[in-house]
Amino acid sequence: MLRILAASVIVFATTAIAAAAPARIVILTSAEAADDWRLCEVGSQRAQGLRYNYLGDKAAKSFFSEEAPPAYFFAVTPTTVATATPASWSWRKPIINYSVLPQSDPKKLEEALHARTREAAGNILNNPALRDKTIVMVWDRRHIADPEYEARFEREAAVTLRQLFRLDILPGVPLEWPADNNDYFWIIDFPKNSNVPLKFEMVKQDFGKSFPKVPANEWGESSNLPADSGCRATR
Predict the structure, then answer these.
(1) Which residues constitute the domain of residue 198?
(2) Residue 137's domain is classified under what CATH number?
(3) What is the per-residue pLDDT across 111-166, written as a single tens digit (0 to 9) for each?
(4) What is the pTM of this model?
(5) How far apart are CA 107 and CA 96, in angstroms?
(6) Which of 56, 59, 141, 184 lies 20 to 30 angstroms, CA to CA, from 148?
(7) Contact partners, residue 202, CB within 8 Å, separation at least 6
(8) Residue 168 phi, psi (nearest 5)
(9) Do the domain assignments include residue 87?
(10) What is the DSSP letter of 68?
């Protein structure tokens, strides 16, 4: 009898978790940064371009509809918050910040990003308030996808969104988010009542002539920003 009860609890819990996933997750990384705290001028222009072209209310090439606006924006570092702010402000939506502040100890910073990424992914997949919603995640690029992290941290210890959202089961998902690519989206769709992803799409940001100084380099290629741009090399 106890075995039957335990099995029933497991089935119920699994069903509850599966039913809580968002319908769509839009993932991008920080715009170009001056340092760990601030976007450079190019990055600030990109953040505005994201608002007016893709992520903001009434954006020209919006990923959202009137019936399914973004429910929440998620961020993890000061520069990801800065990247998300213009778009979230246009919707009068909050940014849920799994805050990791810059630290002088690289190991402690890395460990904090590991922990917060796990927490965020767990909440997003298991929170009934997000069920069937569309959300936006602006995240640390290595914690989106990084082959070194995926080799070091597997299964329950996973630290990348690629692992935690099980994107490895979908075709076409890159193994790595390259250091010099600030200009792409990953869009993941989940079927109703499931936390197993169904579809992956990678979309390049294109702002046309509105923001001519913002790079639009191809995946894996250099942005070729000039040395005097005020933007640091992406880490």
Answers:
(1) 2-204
(2) 3.40.50
(3) 999 999 999 999 999 999 999 999 999 999 999 999 999 999 988 899 999 999 99
(4) 0.90
(5) 24
(6) 184
(7) 172, 174, 184, 185, 186, 187, 219
(8) -65, -15
(9) yes
(10) S
